[in-house]
Each structure stands twice: as structure tokens, then as C-alpha cells.
Specification:
about 375 residues, alpha/beta, 6-stranded mixed sheet, 3-stranded antiparallel sheet, 15 helices, about 15% strand, elongated
């Protein structure tokens, strides 16, 4: 088999981006190491993939459609697959073709269209006629991996939706790469988020909580691209709460060194868990628990600034005093039964959570003699 694939192509220039609009046969995608897909691994926060996980059901649905259309020759797949390489491919202006040297250029990275590629491969396994089926392809050349990641984010936020957890991971990596790697121009709403770096900072909290062996959140956070049923809250929701309540000027812990921030936040949740407990099925580790205690952390940490330390025991003493002094809708918020699945906390809406938070804040700032007065 020849190591060179010659295809008719059109040269498309969009600013600094150079594309070849062409087509490939399904048989080309079956060539060993012809392409790769940088998938985001939910088990490893440090790896550099960015693609969503493959939905095999979606790929199979396409495969069945393609196979069914072979006899009638009406199978139709007009949407282009977007592929990229950090290498150069020379355009022959005399006959409008490109020569793809597999040994020098491949593997291509499939930036967009992995389900189409996988579905076509599955179809070819069922019907060999699919091997000659042509697929429209746009090939970007001289595009670094960080630029490919940017283009994936742009394509999947300006034209179709991508799971927000994956977008958070990509924005965090772009923040890390900013001022270090060359990146293409990003849409304003993406650039602003990347520049602020909130996703990166929030994910550091999430990864720390989810990884520490003594964390009450150990393996409870469902990471981006994790298609299992494990976890009680998804990364997307927890990141949103951290950005909303922790990474704000009013919260004093963000002024501390990064590692210290994470340890203090972990101690906060240890103190909550130590009082409320998690032996029973609990919604403490679902949206309502995260929303309430992330919101309450702002006044709580402002109170902690005047305490001798940030140890779990010190936080538990302060929290227990709050739980003992709350009134009205917040009564019982410091007890396990309040958070048991199907109990009071399960039916709370945002308005109710705000009222409970207000009552907790009142108890937090009340004079130390309040409990004694109530007992008398």
C-alpha cells in the first residue's frame, strides 16, 4: 500500500488559519495511526485530552443508516469532519491536489466529527462497500495542539453545545497556556472567561476535594466525561458554586496561598460532615448542600479570620454554635435527619435555601451569650 494519499482539494485561508477542503474515503480512516482523538479522561485531571467521550449508541445509529443506504445508494453525510495536524501539507496549485504522506503527517487529530468517523468505521465492518464511501473533510495544517483545543472549543460553543464540564476543563487549560503558547483569536465571551481564570481556580478546588483520601467528597464528584452513575453531584454544578461564592472578593480565603485555600475549604467540609454525618443516603453532597454551604462560607470564613486557626476542631465549634442557635426554617439544619434523602433538605428551592442561609448568618454573628439567654 502506498504511503501517500493524493486528493483533490481547495485551499481555504481564514486569517492565519490554512484549511484544505477535501474528501477522504472511509478506507483511509482504517489505515493504522492515520488519526487520533484526544479524549478527556474523567479519571485523570492532569492529562491533556479535551474531546468528549465517544457515545457508541450515537455512532451505531449512524452506522446503521449508512449500511441501509448502500443498496439504494442514497446514504447522505454532507457535514465535514474537521481534522488537524501540526505539520505542513503542500498544495499543488497546478492540479489543485494535496499529497498526504502518512509517515510524515499522521496521525491527524480529529478535532470535530469523532462520532461520524467511528460510525463510518462500524458501517465498513458490516458492509465492505462502505470502504469507498467518501467523507467531506476540512484539514487544518500547521496547527499546534493548544490551537486545536481552542478550535474545538470555538466550534462546539458557537455552532453546537458541548457539555459544560468539558468546556470548563478546556478553558482552564487555555488559562494555563495563556502567555506561554500561541493561541488563536477567541470569541470575546470565551476569552474573558479564560483570562479571568476562574475555571482553572475552581477546578483546583474540585480536584483536591475529590482526590484527598480523608475528604468527605472523595469520589463523590462526577467529573467531566464520566458516563458512570457514580458521584452525587457533577463537576459543572460544583464549579459554578465555587465561582459564585468562593472565588469572590468578599471571601477572605482567596487571598491566601493556593494550597492553603484548598486545605481550609476541605477542613470546612470535614467540619460539616463531622457534625451532620453521612451514614444515611444524604442530599448534603448534592446541589442543595453545596449551594447552601458554599454560600454560607463567605460570612463563615470572615468570622474565621478572627479565630486562632483554621483547624477542623475550631470550625466545628463555631458551626455547632450556629446550628444550636438557628431558628425558624433553619431549625434542624445541623442534624443528619434534615439532610436524609427524602427529608426536609430534599424539597428546598433556592428561595428556601436563601432563608436558611440568612438564619445561619444571624446565628453566626449573634453575641456569644445568646444561647445562655435562650436556656435561661
Amino acid at each position: 500500500m502506498s504511503n501517500i494519499i493524493t486528493r483533490p482539494a481547495s485551499l481555504v485561508k481564514q486569517g492565519n488559519l490554512c484549511l484544505y477542503a477535501t474528501s477522504l474515503k472511509v478506507s483511509d480512516f482504517l489505515i493504522p495511526k492515520f488519526y487520533s482523538i484526544e479524549r478527556l479522561d474523567p479519571e485523570n485531571a492532569n492529562e491533556k485530552g479535551y474531546q468528549r467521550l465517544l457515545n457508541k449508541g450515537r455512532a451505531k445509529k449512524l452506522a446503521d443508516y449508512i449500511v441501509a443506504g448502500q443498496n439504494t445508494k442514497d446514504a447522505f453525510l454532507p457535514t465535514s469532519v474537521f481534522m488537524a495536524t501540526d505539520k505542513n501539507i503542500v498544495f499543488n496549485q497546478e492540479n489543485n491536489t494535496i499529497d498526504i504522506n502518512i509517515n510524515e503527517v499522521c496521525p491527524f487529530n480529529v478535532v470535530d466529527g469523532q462520532h461520524r468517523v467511528e460510525g463510518l468505521k462500524m458501517a465498513a465492518e458490516k458492509d465492505s462497500r462502505v470502504l469507498d464511501f467518501e467523507v467531506p473533510v476540512n484539514i487544518a495544517i500547521n496547527l499546534s495542539v493548544i490551537e486545536q483545543m481552542c478550535h474545538f472549543l470555538i466550534v462546539n460553543t458557537t455552532q453546537r453545545s458541548v457539555e459544560e464540564g468539558i468546556a470548563q476543563r478546556i478553558r482552564a487549560r487555555l488559562t494555563e497556556a495563556m502567555n506561554v503558547d500561541d493561541t488563536p483569536n477567541l470569541p470575546k465571551w470565551i476569552f474573558t472567561s479564560v483570562q479571568k481564570g476562574e475555571d482553572e481556580k475552581a477546578l483546583l478546588y474540585i480536584d483536591y476535594l475529590n482526590a484527598e483520601n480523608d475528604s468527605p467528597w472523595k469520589d463523590k464528584i462526577k467529573m467531566a466525561n464520566d458516563d458512570s452513575n457514580d458521584g452525587t453531584i457533577n463537576q459543572k454544578s460544583f464549579v459554578k458554586a465555587i465561582k459564585k461564592y468562593i472565588l469572590v472578593d468578599d471571601n477572605p480565603i482567596i487571598k491566601l496561598e493556593g494550597d492553603k485555600q484548598h486545605k481550609i475549604f476541605l477542613n470546612y467540609w470535614k467540619s460539616i460532615s463531622g457534625i451532620i454525618g453521612d451514614d444515611k443516603p444524604s442530599v448534603l453532597y448534592k446541589y442543595n448542600g453545596v449551594e447552601l454551604f458554599c454560600k454560607f462560607s463567605v460570612p463563615f470564613f470572615n468570622k474565621m479570620v478572627n479565630m486562632p486557626d483554621y483547624k477542623v476542631s475550631t470550625m466545628q465549634t463555631l458551626l455547632q454554635n450556629v446550628f444550636d442557635n438557628v431558628e425558624g426554617v433553619a431549625v434542624g439544619v445541623g442534624h443528619t435527619d434534615f439532610w436524609t434523602k427524602g427529608g426536609t433538605a430534599s424539597g428546598l428551592n433556592s428561595g428556601a435555601l436563601s432563608k436558611i442561609n440568612s438564619e445561619m448568618v444571624r446565628a453566626l454573628v449573634a453575641p456569644s451569650g445568646t444561647q445562655l439567654e435562650k436556656e435561661l
